[in-house]
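The pair is set out directly below:
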Amino acid sequence: MEIEKLQGAIEAILFTMGDSVEVEKIAAAIGHDEETTRKLIHNMMDRYEEESRGIRIIELDDSFQMCTKKEMYEYLIRVAKQPRRYVLTDVLLETLSIIAYKQPVTKLEIEKIRGVKSDHAVNKLVEYGLVEESGRLEAPGRPLLFGTTEEFLRRFSVHSLDELPTLNEEQIEHFKEEAEDEAQLKLDI
């Protein structure tokens, strides 16, 4: 198949599936190896970004997904009314950060780090599609493990968890001191 037909097939796959599709599945569908498929998709991504198109292709881990460009949001809301927007409070962001960096993690581990119950926060993050159950811990009671989703990657514009910022030792020490000071303030009250 010529390049344009292959890219047309990839475009049809990504458009029709809606969610992300693993590169190995796309490669199998078009009858090429993963490296060639990845190059074809990256060429399409570049072309979509150069042209004044309303869509783009994003890469999430080892998958690709077609989605609307952020710049087109205002036009979409004119048609679809105001889409439901979720507000991530400080509590939700704190809980999400713990899950993102410690995953897979249990609610008990999250609560040990936060120092408070986290049922509501974890449940909200699951409802928003940013966190999901990722198995059970092989321990008494077999508690649920939680991890982030592809929606988390999309929302925070990262391709994989490897792109999350890392903290240096000085920042970690500073955060520990702040947490200890805050804990001491709570004890004094």
Remarks:
- The longest strand covers residues 55-60.
